[in-house]
Amino acid sequence: MDSAARPDAGGPFEPPRRLVRALAETHGDAGGEWLRALPELVRDTVSRWELEPERVLTPGGRSSLVVLVRRADGTPAALKLLAPGARGAHEHAALARWDGWGAVRMLAAAEGALLLERLRHEVSLSSLPEAKAQLEAADTVRKLWVDPGEDHPFESVAERSRRAAEALRAARTQPWAEAVAPLIDEALDTREELTASAAERAVLLHGRFRQGKVLSAERVPWLTVGPRPVVGERAYDLARLVRDRLEDLVASPGGAAAARRRVTKLADSLEVDRDRVRGWTRFRATCAGVRALGAGRRQEGELLLEFATWP
Fold first, then answer.
1. Residue 106 is inside which H or E element, if any?
2. Which domain of life is it from (predicted)?
3. Closest CA to 108 of 87, 92, 94, 130
4. pLDDT (average), residues 171-188
5. I want to staple 39 with a disulfide (CB 3.0 to 4.6 A). Which of 13, 71, 171, 172 is the partner?
6. Spatial CA neighbour of 78 closest among 64, 89, 88
7. CA–CA separation, 175 and 301 (whole Å)
8. Model confidence over 255-310: pLDDT tens digits?
9. Of residues 227 and 88, more confidently modeled
10. Percent helix, strand, coil in the chain (nearest 5)?
């Protein structure tokens, strides 16, 4: 195996391109500094935990590097190194709270690093037929909705969505956003209504739950990975799931109706208010679409904003 795939080999080491692009967009110089230090960071962490690296997982994520490894006793595992600002402590706390229930099991943790049980990263719910995938996704996300515990470190849905709303307001002043200003205003109004009226008991949420975040596993069929944990109402956690397989939805002549059916099925199966699922879906899709437009990803942004008008 070549040195690019074996980060302990002492030769050139290239992180996945997706990670490099994402950090350049979101972290700027700080992301570049972390990437330059990454080979040494991998070697130090591997040595400290007595791990044998196998390969870097590609295409990987947008805020972390995952290296498939084996522990000293030969047990397969996955080493996850988190970029600065990736809220690794919060992911650590959420995984500890779930303790393997519906989520990948954490084997060890240090600042900026997590050692996780090995899952079948090449097989996610996205590989299943749509109806089956949504059933399994609903069953998985239900397990994650637990009490966050006293003195938990997680931010609230109100806090996270407030930052997203501030970014929307800032984007609205840009010339490129003029055409989507009405959609931004509607999303901001929707967020105000949702945060002002939330009544159900707040639970621990995954934060960015979708089919691609649920992987095949050994001890149970499916486990979720990569949370960005937050505490709040369950409807928030379904918003990203509703827009899974977006390109297929948009390409379908019945895409809008299919999106509405998704909202209904998910809300009914999980006993969550349909209107609140619909509202958070619109808000989060608008935020993602405007963010993509601002980053120059025009096609992605237009798809997301078209979707935001459907549910």
1. strand 106-110
2. Bacteria
3. 92
4. 96
5. 13
6. 64
7. 15
8. 999 999 999 999 999 999 999 999 999 999 999 999 999 989 999 999 999 999 99
9. 227
10. 55, 15, 30
| Three-class SS state of 109 | strand
Q: Report whether 290 contacts 180 (CB < 8 A).
A: yes
Res. 60: pLDDT tops 90: no
Alpha-carbon distance of 119 to 214, in angstroms, equals: 10
At what angle are helices 234-242 and 255-270 packed, to 10 degrees?
150
Residues 233, 204, 239, CA angle at the centre, nearest 5°?
Answer: 45
251 HSE (CA, 13 A, CB side) = 4
* CB-facing half-sphere around the CA of 221: CA atoms within 13 A: 9
Ramachandran class of 28: left when φ > 0, alpha when ψ lies in -120 to 50, beta otherwise? left
Amino acid 7: pLDDT? 59
Does residue 101 sit in helix, strand or coil?
coil
Mean pLDDT of the 141-170 span: 96
Q: Which of 234, 277, 263, 262 is nearest to 142 (CA)?
A: 234
Mean pLDDT computed over every residue of the chain: 91
> What whole-number distance in Å separates Cα of residue 301 and Cα of residue 296?
9
* Backbone region of residue 271 per phi and psi (left: phi > 0; alpha: psi in -120 to 50; beta: other values): left
The domains of the chain, with CATH numbers, are 17-118 (3.30.200.20), 123-308 (3.90.1200.10)
pLDDT tens, residue by residue, 198-252: 778 999 999 999 999 999 999 999 999 999 999 999 999 999 999 999 998 888 8
Q: Over 60: is that where the pLDDT of 38 sits?
A: yes
Residues 231 and 202 sit within 8 Å (Cβ to Cβ): yes
For residue 223, count CB atoms less than 10 angstroms from its CB and return exposed for 0-12, middle for 13-18, buried for 19 or more.
Answer: buried
